[in-house]
């Protein structure tokens, strides 16, 4: 228990698979001729890339929920903010190639009668600036939000609901056309990124490899956090917040640090997501999206990190598959999946797998109940 | 007679027949276009209606009104209600009565006609206005005061100078005070607009109208043209200013009523959640779907009533309320027994499972009833609005406010005064202890969840009156419901009441200044900040219980 | 240790494999039929409108197959559910085109869903038929717009109100998204051009699914009580309409006092409301179910038989799909192939009868000619036509009333360009 390896055996598999995917998938797509059994068709590349971004979002949620007991029902907001930062960069790259041919303003601003670029769009023509914003905007929002919330000792379901209020408010705000973020249509019709066409196969391949790398590095970072001394304190907060406080730890600072880190990871995931799906719009802020992301984590196995990624993958592959195969009934399948997982695999897929195969020393499943629970009076 | 001559005779009769028909047709056209010397004006009017062009119909209305014929009122009423029918082949006009019976429009005698050959005489808005004004002029001397008042209102809206003699005549005979006042206002409305009336009379009319402090009166006064005499204009401006002063106060009051109304909707939507989430601790994401099931139950009840017992339609909601409670409650009990009972002590997993259930329920409803909106009718007694001072209140909103309060009171009684309520509180406070005291915790759990779900179903009945009945109904209310419960304080029904009303009123006061969207955003941010200040909501549970 | 490693790896790879197999299995049998993609939401918020369009497409494809298919092959519908989720629209479009090899796609409802799939259709060079009235300001090589452009709906409606009802004061009420924004901007410019003053125009935007209309309806009442005849031009979207009309009815706003003309309320939407109190409110469309023509009668009969429901209503976007599908069939027959570029070239100029007695033509700007009808709501939940254009109106991609777009022109035949600037004579919309 005292020394915990940075990479346990599930982590090793995870990293290995990711590394292999990062190399093999683009290779099979670009270098192998279509028609060959090993060829990966073009449409799968951004699709799997999207799953990887969702997996990174899931890991960021697992970091705070699984290890620190903070159930955020608004993590989609950080994801979307990262996405918007990237989207704004991509919009600026369109330059005069919009339908109205305005040298600077994006199309939606032209027909909403904007005369100048709003101040918050300045600087987004620089990739470096945009990338800083991808991390900074979600990070700052999380810092401000967490600063107030954790200091006021808002916990449990109250915290969950106000995170939901946060993402809901942001969604409404971004829907407003007056805000200057493109309203309901959001940002779309991207042309190129760093001078490379976003639709070119090579760009796609690079984005895919980057998503895989980000997921791998994000995992390692989270793993580093949870296996460090900081991680021990986090687990203590999760399991007995008051006791940890009485022991002299500044609980709110630990929570704040990990919350901000998690938000930045979510922002990064959003930034990688946008060029691959080609659109970012306010529905990404929808509370339902955030709830769904939490469900990925639960399906995969909370407090395992790898499980979170696995859950995101399973649910989204299922969604892609069912919406095509049984379009009329896929919601039944998805709903049933959630119910069945809760009832029969309470520790999620990976947690159950661990039970079945025996625990590796490091991966300790999350005990119940926890601080994020509803005030379940006097149990 | 030889064969040849027979044939010639046949030709002759055919030709004769054709020309007779032609004459009839020509006559009709003449009737439609110009008053004929032979026929009474009412025949001209009917012929004009039969032509069924908007301009023809207008002409028909004018002729009918000036004719003063006995059947004019019946014909105009039928026209206004869309019950005046024209027969395709001979252009005869009929009035559709109750249950498919028809009467001849000209004679008033009952007639048996093939309904398939009839076509309604069409109206557009312009005609509808002029029919109503005409009807008003014709019914000014109707026997019942209520109808006379309605007629006076119609005349007032039309401001038709042609109706002035009729109004004067009616005023001379009027005995009922209410009807007299209405007639005077109608007369004033006409005179204010009439340029040729004496100035002193017009100013008096302005003052009469200004005494009615409502927006319609202000509108009337604003219509005084700029070219009117100076004294008249001053009087009108003073009148408007006076009305606006009194309206400013009533506006604020009106916002409060809107807020209370919105608050009661929120209360209804949230109160079931206050049980399943607040009291039991289940993060019930399927709560919205319970509301939706209640709304669909209302739809089914109304559908059955329409088919089998249309006379009961006015009371359909009273049948729907208990049924919605039972149906949603039963679904709730099934969910509790089937899924949630395995998850006590793991509240966050209830989030996951109930989210799945909500997806399944939505899609199930979509499969059974189709994805589009279902029509839920509003009974007559809930339609329309009434004036209370300067407030305009709609019956359905008032009904919902009262209903929400009744549901709240009933729920409070159940929890505080019944054995079940006692057991519920015992189990949620200390499950093991309650169990050792002999309480069947399983049963109590199922009943509590059923109660919360059933109350959500009842909310669905109310919401079906103001919102879409579609599979997405529940989704629209789930977030607001959670906000209300958390804002008010989990586990406290009074908190939910105060929370819902506060949010409703605040929303309605923000809306005129900030707009609907920004108002809502401000409110959400306010909730977030409020929770920082009071991390357990408005009415926090005190004591050790909260530190679970 | 090794075995667990292997097991875990196997588990993960099975998922990857499952995703891959999905593509290859269905693609194998593709040669026998011509596939037609149907991209309409069957779940989520837009299912309420879009599910009907999916059914219409299935019916049309069924009919065509009964007539012997197309180019000697049977048509096969490929239905997917983008679930009212805009990024999923793009993903599903990619799946239809790249994986299922569909010859054309019929789909989308909201503007954002169209904007989301646009880059996919451009990249993979396929064809989209978009059947819904929309804001214009777009003309793409790969998209055919069979719904109304603003000049085929909004402008005639305003003209009607002004002439027939003598309206002088206007409330432009809409949901806050791009279609109402653009339509209202065009109308505002148009009305001001006609001499309507600023204070006689009130513009109001509400969020999607807005359900509490008390304040706004009372504001409209107030605005309408100035003594001048007032009308509401509503671009309120979908779900928000039912509570809006219920509130209008309850607050006693009658069509004879303040008429509401709507651009997004059709027969399908009225099916959810008791229309008794709404009689006289208006809608402007290019098709109404109540229009009495043999073609329409046959279509309604066929539709009700197909859905086995004698009360199913028809609406404007359905007719747009009928026209679009028939145009596509004719174009494919003319080109002798389903090859995208050849069909795009062949389809311009194709004429097919619409359901209201006229003949619609595909124009070089990829919009079609349509008649405009104004209907008043009647007590049966249908519309009585009170006015219509004598001729068909050609759809205009770029509005003549908007700064920036009035110089643009779309012509995919002679100029091969969707945003040709007539001032500079350059493609690409460049102002200089």
From TrEMBL, chain A:
PANTHER family, A to Z: HIGH-AFFINITY BRANCHED-CHAIN AMINO ACID TRANSPORT SYSTEM PERMEASE, SLR1201 PROTEIN
Major localization class: membrane
Top-level lineage group: Bacteria
Protein location: Cell membrane
Signal sequence residues: none
GO MF annotation list: branched-chain amino acid transmembrane transporter activity
One Gene Ontology cellular component annotation held by this UniProt entry: plasma membrane
Organism: Agaricicola taiwanensis
Key words, A-Z: Cell membrane, Membrane, Transmembrane, Transmembrane helix
Taxon lineage: Bacteria, Pseudomonadati, Pseudomonadota, Alphaproteobacteria, Rhodobacterales
Cross-referenced InterPro entries: ABC_transp_permease, ABC_transptr_urea_perm_UrtC, LivM-like
Oxidoreductase found in the keyword field: no
Alphabetized NCBIfam families for the sequence: urea_trans_UrtC (TIGR03408)
UniProt topology in membrane: Multi-pass membrane protein
TM region positions: 12-32, 44-67, 73-91, 127-150, 157-175, 205-226, 253-274, 294-317, 329-350
The protein's name: Urea ABC transporter permease subunit UrtC
UniProtKB/TrEMBL annotation, chain B:
Family: Belongs to the binding-protein-dependent transport system permease family. LivHM subfamily.
GO CC terms: plasma membrane
Primary location recorded for the protein, binned into one broad class: membrane
InterPro entries: ABC_transp_permease (IPR001851), ABC_UrtB_bac (IPR017779), BCAA_transport_permease (IPR052157)
Membrane spanning residue stretches: 258-283, 312-335, 398-415, 482-506, 512-531
Topological relation to the membrane, as annotated: Multi-pass membrane protein
GO biological process: amino acid transport
Signal sequence annotation: 1-39
Keywords: Amino-acid transport, Cell membrane, Membrane, Signal, Transmembrane, Transmembrane helix, Transport
Pfam hit, one: BPD_transp_2
Compartments, record wording: Cell membrane
GO MF: transmembrane transporter activity
NCBIfam families reported for this sequence: urea_trans_UrtB
Protein name as catalogued: Branched-chain amino acid ABC transporter permease
Keyword Transmembrane helix appears in the UniProt entry: yes
From TrEMBL, chain C:
Superkingdom of origin: Bacteria
Entry-linked SUPFAM superfamilies: Periplasmic binding protein-like I
InterPro entries xref list: ABC_urea-bd_UrtA, Peripla_BP_I
Record's keyword terms, sorted: Signal
Signal peptide annotation: 1-27
Pfam families, alphabetized: Peripla_BP_5
Designated name of the protein: ABC transporter substrate-binding protein
Naturally occurring in which organism (per UniProt): Agaricicola taiwanensis
């Amino acid at each position: 228990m005292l020394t915990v390896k940075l990479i346990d055996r599930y982590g090793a598999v995870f990293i290995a698979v990711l590394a292999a995917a990062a190399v093999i998938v683009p290779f099979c797509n670009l270098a192998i001729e279509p028609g060959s059994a090993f060829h990966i068709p073009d449409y799968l590349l951004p699709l799997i890339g999207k799953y990887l971004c969702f997996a990174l979002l899931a890991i960021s949620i697992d970091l705070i929920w699984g290890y620190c007991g903070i159930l955020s029902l608004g993590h989609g907001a950080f994801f979307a903010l990262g996405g918007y930062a990237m989207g704004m960069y991509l919009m600026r790259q369109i330059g005069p190639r919009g339908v109205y041919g305005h040298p600077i303003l994006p199309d939606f601003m032209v027909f909403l009668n904007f005369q100048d670029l709003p101040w918050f769009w300045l600087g987004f023509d620089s990739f470096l600036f945009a990338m800083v914003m991808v991390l900074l905007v979600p990070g700052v929002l999380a810092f401000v939000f967490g600063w107030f919330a954790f200091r006021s000792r808002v916990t449990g379901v109250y915290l969950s609901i106000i995170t939901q209020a946060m993402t809901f408010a942001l969604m409404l705000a971004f829907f407003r056309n007056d805000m200057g973020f493109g309203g309901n249509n959001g940002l779309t019709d991207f042309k190129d990124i760093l001078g490379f066409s976003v639709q070119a196969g090579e760009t796609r391949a690079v984005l895919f490899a980057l998503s895989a790398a980000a997921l791998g590095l994000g995992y390692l970072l989270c793993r580093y956090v949870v296996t460090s001394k900081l991680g021990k304190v986090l687990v203590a907060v999760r399991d007995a917040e008051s006791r940890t406080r009485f022991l002299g730890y500044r609980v709110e600072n630990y929570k704040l640090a990990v919350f901000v880190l998690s938000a930045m990871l979510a922002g990064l995931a959003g930034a990688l997501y946008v060029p691959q799906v080609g659109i970012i719009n306010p529905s990404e802020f929808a509370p339902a999206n955030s709830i769904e992301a939490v469900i990925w984590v639960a399906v995969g196995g909370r407090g395992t990190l790898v499980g979170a990624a696995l859950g995101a993958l399973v649910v989204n592959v299922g969604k892609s598959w069912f919406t095509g195969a049984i379009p009329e009934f896929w919601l039944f399948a998805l709903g049933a999946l959630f119910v069945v997982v809760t009832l029969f695999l309470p520790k999620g897929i990976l947690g159950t797998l661990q039970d079945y195969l025996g625990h590796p020393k490091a991966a300790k499943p999350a005990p119940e109940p926890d601080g994020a629970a509803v005030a379940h009076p006097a149990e | 007679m030889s064969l040849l001559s027979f044939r010639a005779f046949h030709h002759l009769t055919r030709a004769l027949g054709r020309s007779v028909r032609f004459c009839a047709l020509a006559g009709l056209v003449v009737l439609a276009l110009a008053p004929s010397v032979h026929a009474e004006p009412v025949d001209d009017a009917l012929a004009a209606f039969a032509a069924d062009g908007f301009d023809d119909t207008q002409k028909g209305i004018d002729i009918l009104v000036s004719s003063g014929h006995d059947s004019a009122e019946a014909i105009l009423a039928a026209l206004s209600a869309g019950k005046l029918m024209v027969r395709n082949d001979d252009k005869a006009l009929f009035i559709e009565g109750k249950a498919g019976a028809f009467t001849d429009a000209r004679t008033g005698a009952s007639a048996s006609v093939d309904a398939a050959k009839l076509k309604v005489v069409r109206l557009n808005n312009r005609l509808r206005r002029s029919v109503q004004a005409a009807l008003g002029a014709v019914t000014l001397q109707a026997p019942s005061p209520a109808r006379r008042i309605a007629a006076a209102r119609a005349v007032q809206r039309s401001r038709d100078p042609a109706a002035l003699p009729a109004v004067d005549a009616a005023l001379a005979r009027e005995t009922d005070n209410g009807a007299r006042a209405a007639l005077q206002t109608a007369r004033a409305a006409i005179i204010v607009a009439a340029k040729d009336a004496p100035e002193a009379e017009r100013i008096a009319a302005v003052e009469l109208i200004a005494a009615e402090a409502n927006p319609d009166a202000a509108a009337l006064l604003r219509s005084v043209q700029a070219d009117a005499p100076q004294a008249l204009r001053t009087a009108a401006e003073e009148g408007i200013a006076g009305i606006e002063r009194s309206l400013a106060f009533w506006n604020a009051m009106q916002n409060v009523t809107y807020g209370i109304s919105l608050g009661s909707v929120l209360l209804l939507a949230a109160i079931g959640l206050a049980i399943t989430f607040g009291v039991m601790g289940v993060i019930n994401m399927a709560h919205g779907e319970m509301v939706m099931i209640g709304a669909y139950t209302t739809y089914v009840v109304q559908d059955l009533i329409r088919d089998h017992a249309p006379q009961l339609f006015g009371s359909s909601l009273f049948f729907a309320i208990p049924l919605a409670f039972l149906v949603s409650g039963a679904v709730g009990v099934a969910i509790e027994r089937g899924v949630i009972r395995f998850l006590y002590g793991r509240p966050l997993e209830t989030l996951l499972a109930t989210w799945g259930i909500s997806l399944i329920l939505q899609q199930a409803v979509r499969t059974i009833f189709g994805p589009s909106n279902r029509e839920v009718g509003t009974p007559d007694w809930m339609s329309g609005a009434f004036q209370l001072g300067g407030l305009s209140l709609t019956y359905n909103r008032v009904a919902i406010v009262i209903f929400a309060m009744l549901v709240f009171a009933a729920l409070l009684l159940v929890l505080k005064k019944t054995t079940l309520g006692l057991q519920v509180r015992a189990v949620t406070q200390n499950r093991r202890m309650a169990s050792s005291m002999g309480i069947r915790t399983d049963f109590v759990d199922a009943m509590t969840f059923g109660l919360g779900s059933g109350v959500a179903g009842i909310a669905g009945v109310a919401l079906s009156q103001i919102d879409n009945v579609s599979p997405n109904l529940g989704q629209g209310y789930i977030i607001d419901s959670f906000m209300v419960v958390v804002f008010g304080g989990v586990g406290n029904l009074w908190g939910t009441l105060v929370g819902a009303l506060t949010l409703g009123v605040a929303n309605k006061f923000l809306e005129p200044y900030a707009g609907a969207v920004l108002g809502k955003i401000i409110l959400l941010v306010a909730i977030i900040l409020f929770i920082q200040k009071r991390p357990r909501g408005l009415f926090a549970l005190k004591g050790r219980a909260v530190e679970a | 240790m090794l075995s667990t490693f292997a097991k875990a790896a196997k588990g993960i790879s099975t998922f990857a494999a499952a995703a891959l197999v999905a593509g290859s299995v269905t693609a194998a049998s593709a040669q026998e039929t011509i596939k037609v993609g149907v991209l309409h939401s069957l779940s989520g918020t837009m299912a309420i409108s879009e599910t009907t369009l999916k059914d219409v497409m299935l019916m049309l494809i069924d009919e065509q197959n009964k007539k012997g298919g197309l180019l000697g092959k049977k048509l096969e519908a490929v239905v997917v559910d983008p679930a009212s989720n805009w990024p999923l629209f793009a993903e599903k479009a990619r799946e239809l085109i790249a994986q299922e090899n569909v010859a054309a796609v019929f789909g989308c409802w909201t503007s954002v869903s169209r904007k989301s799939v646009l880059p996919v259709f451009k990249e993979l060079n396929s064809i989209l038929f978009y059947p819904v009235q929309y804001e214009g300001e777009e003309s793409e090589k790969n998209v055919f717009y069979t719904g109304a452009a603003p000049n085929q709906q909004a402008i005639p409606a305003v003209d009607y109100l002004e002439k027939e009802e003598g309206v002088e004061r206007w409330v432009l009420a809409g949901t806050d998204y791009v279609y109402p924004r653009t339509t209202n901007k065009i109308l505002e410019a148009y009305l001001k051009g006609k001499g309507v003053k600023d204070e006689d125009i009130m513009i109001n935007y509400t969020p999607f699914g807005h359900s509490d209309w008390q304040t706004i309806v009372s504001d409209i009442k107030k605005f309408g009580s100035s003594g001048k005849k007032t009308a509401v031009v509503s671009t309120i979207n979908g779900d928000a309409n039912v509570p809006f009309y219920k509130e209008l009815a309850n607050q006693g706003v009658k069509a004879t006092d303040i008429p509401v003309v709507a651009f997004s309320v059709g027969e399908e939407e009225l099916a959810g409301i008791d229309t008794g109190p709404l009689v006289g409110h208006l809608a402007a469309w290019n098709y109404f179910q109540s229009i009495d023509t043999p073609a329409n009668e046959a279509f309604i009969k066929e539709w009700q038989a197909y859905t086995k429901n004698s009360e199913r209503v028809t609406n404007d976007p359905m007719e747009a799909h009928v026209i679009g599908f028939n145009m596509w069939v004719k174009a494919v027959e003319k080109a002798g192939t389903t090859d995208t570029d050849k069909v795009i070239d062949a389809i311009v100029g194709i004429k097919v009868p619409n359901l209201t007695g006229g003949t619609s033509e595909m124009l070089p700007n990829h919009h079609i000619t349509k008649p405009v009808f104004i209907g008043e709501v009647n007590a049966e939940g249908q519309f009585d036509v009170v006015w219509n254009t004598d001729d068909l109106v050609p759809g205009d991609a770029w509005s003549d009333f908007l700064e920036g777009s009035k110089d643009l022109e779309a012509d995919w035949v002679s100029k091969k360009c969707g945003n040709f600037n007539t001032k500079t004579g350059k493609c690409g919309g460049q102002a200089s």
